[in-house]
Amino acid sequence: MALSGKVALVTGAAQGLGKGFSGILLKNGAKVALLDIDETVGKSAKADFDKEYGKDCTTFLTCDVTSDEQLKDAFQKTIERFGRIDIVSNNAGTVNEIYWKKMIEINLNAVIRGTFLALQHMKKDTGGEGGVIVNTASMAGLGPVRNSPVYTATKHGVVGFTRAVALASGLSGYGVRVNALCPGLVKTPLIDNLTNEMYGRFAHLSHFTDELKAGIIEVPVVAEKFLQLVTDESNNGAVMKITGDGATYMNFKDVLKNPLP
Q1: CATH of residue 30
Q2: Domain, as residue range, for 116
Q3: What pTM was estimated for this model as a whole?
Q4: Phi, psi angle pair for 59, to nearest 5°
Q5: Which of 79, 99, 123, 205 is most buried per CB count within 10 Å?
Q6: Which of 99, 151, 174, 249 is flagged as catalytic?
Q7: What secondary structure letter does DSSP report for 249?
Q8: Is 151 known to be catalytic?
């Protein structure tokens, strides 16, 4: 997929991975709707991008991804502003085992919500032109994080949902690819602001996260791999693991040769 003339919508776009994803899309010729709940940081991110790519290449929309109405409205405003949507990055996420119900809403339910809205606008059988969705999961979606069981559950959910909906989209002839990104620990404000208290009842195990920081990954490294999932049209249902040693596609060996009906 060539990105010139394409339009992307990125959630959690104000900083960290979302800002990195937005930047690499802009660098390669796409226009981007930047969605974030933090209006101050979001407008600052847009101002940064405006200096490099011009004001017409982005729009910032304040959006709480846990709200059906706000996310639906953000999709509609993106189409009104740019005329189309070709790429959706369901990236907004959080880590807080104390407020685990909210974490499920942001990390998993909002990904499902954003994916279904993306399909609604992009699928070919209702007049769309196809496209690609990339859902941000985590290494926690591939194996357990012992001090963050609910976070682990949300990211496992993202991986499973992505794989299943990719199959469903392909079988339905929607023309929309769906992939998942599973980075290890990435140097972002989310990680920088982690406190022991955020692990709730498992705060006494917080040192396990500290051990992972030895192999922390920089945002631009992950952004390059995100771009690969967007542009490589052979990828549908792909799950990419990213560590300090590089990136690999997961080769899931299902118990059954074919997916369950």
Answers
A1: 3.40.50.720
A2: 7-249
A3: 0.93
A4: -140, 140
A5: 123
A6: 151
A7: E
A8: yes
